Amino acid sequence: xxxxxxxxxxxxxxxxxxxxQLNFWIFIMLVSSAVxxxxxxxxxxxxxxxxxxxxxxxxxxxxxxxxxxxFIIILLGLISQRQLLPGxxxxxxxxxxxxxxxxxxxxxxxxxxxxxxxNSYCGSRPNIEVIDSMQTAVWLANLGICTDFRAAFAFEIVxxxxxxxxxxxxxxxxRDDFD
Length: 179
Hints:
- It is built from 4 helices and no strands.
- The protein is an all-alpha fold.
């Protein structure tokens, strides 16, 4: 009676990620997401304090920023176990890219859109002849909101570009295009 034994050899493919670029991307995306989370949470608190309606972009960007931070934490866990796969990175980056791009478009509409946009109120200055504390407080609050929206717009641009860059980098890692 002859016995046959089948031996299978599994080869695990190792992906070589460029460490400096990956660390730089993680740092920039963490900063961008944290800043966006803080800005939109602050703007939501202002809307609640003034008992005004909350535009959908505020909770939307809070959620997107939180998802991005969770994605980066997952990536850090996979990096620590040396199991970061380009497919996971491309999929997560693409989903976040679409979400960031949607937020960028809506923020630009809120900031630079038609009449009643945030930017149309940013140039107003208090009357120099009659300055009282309430008018100054309103002007400072208005200036803060304008600055917050402009910063959010800038960080959404940075986040969108860096997510696109990560998709390209993951594709290059998958093809072993790095030295």
